[in-house]
Every structure is written in C-alpha cells, then in structure tokens.
Design a protein that fits this description.
Structural class: mainly beta
Radius of gyration: 18 Å
Distance between the termini: 40 Å
Number of helices: 0
Order of helices and strands: EEEEEEEEEE
Largest sheet: 6 strands, antiparallel
Shape: elongated
Length: about 170
C-alpha cells in the first residue's frame, strides 16, 4: 500500500505576513469520502479536505502524478481539545462556520467561549490554565487525487499534492 502525502504552502506573493488559514488533510473520517482509510492502492482515488479562512483564495493545485480535481465542498463536524495556557484564548485547528455547538471543560472552567471574527480564535470568559473539548462545523473544499496504477513500473509510490493560497 502507498501513503497519501500532502504539502500545503501558505503565503502572500510579496512575502508579507497576512492573517489567514489554509490547511489540508486526507479525509479519514469513518463516514467520510475515503471510508476511514488513509492508505490507498495504485489506481484508486484519495479524497482530500482543504480548510481555508474567508480571506484566503486558492491560487493553484498541483500534484506530482495523477490528477487533482475540485469536487465541491462538505460540512465537517470537528471535535478537538483546546489548551488554554494561562490565557483566555485558544486556536481551533480549522475555521469554524459559526459558533461552537458544544463545549466541555476538563477540570477547571474558564466560563463561556466566544468565537472571534477570524473564526479560529476562541475567547473564554476568564484567563487561566484549562482544557476544553469543543465541537463545531467547518467548511471543507473537497479535492480528488486520482492515482495512476503504476509509476515508472512501480506499484508502491507516493504522490505529492500541493495546494497554494494567498490571503487578502
């Protein structure tokens, strides 16, 4: 079996630092497009989920072999643990579509959580050291990475997918 590898490049053409989010991952959700798989056989299609903030535009998608094509979008429910490190803010791993749908404090509670305008920062009512488990919806762009059945006679190989974006 071969592994799917993704490289995500984020930045502005002029090299300046602008706030924004761009990330990608193989869809490994048990009920997702790959049926929970993260390894694929030659000739199969692997589905990739790309998350971006509203101010980011995808400028290019390139792969080292096969083809990479946009397949629309999907709403993905994300559950993750956030660490508040003597702070009243923590960062989500993906931009949320709207407010947090569920949160549970493990141990110490810092109060209510408010999603900030950047859609990745959560602000607690008070500052402290705490862990919160949160659930929210994120919008993912779906890409299909179609693999050839062989590469130079090899049936065990990697394909690199590069997704470029710029922030405005």
């Amino acid at each position: 079996m071969a592994n799917a590898t993704i490289r995500v490049q984020f930045g502005n053409p002029d090299g300046s630092g602008s706030d924004g989010h761009l990330s990608a991952e193989v869809d490994t959700r048990p009920d997702g497009l790959n049926g929970g798989r993260s390894s694929f056989s030659p000739g199969e299609t692997a589905y990739i989920l790309v998350y971006k903030s509203d101010n980011v535009s995808i400028t290019d998608t390139i792969c080292s072999a096969g083809s990479l094509s946009a397949q629309g979008s999907a709403v993905v429910t994300v559950t993750e643990e956030l660490m508040f490190e003597d702070s009243d803010t923590a960062q989500l791993s993906k931009p949320a579509r709207s407010a947090i749908s569920q949160s549970v404090w493990y141990g110490r509670s810092l109060g209510g959580l408010t999603l900030q305008s950047d859609k990745v920062t959560l602000k607690a009512s008070s500052k402290g050291v705490a862990v919160a488990k949160v659930t929210y919806d994120a919008l993912a762009l779906v890409y299909a990475l179609s693999s050839p059945s062989t590469l130079n006679g090899e049936t065990d190989f990697s394909i690199l997918a590069l997704i470029k974006g710029t922030a405005s």
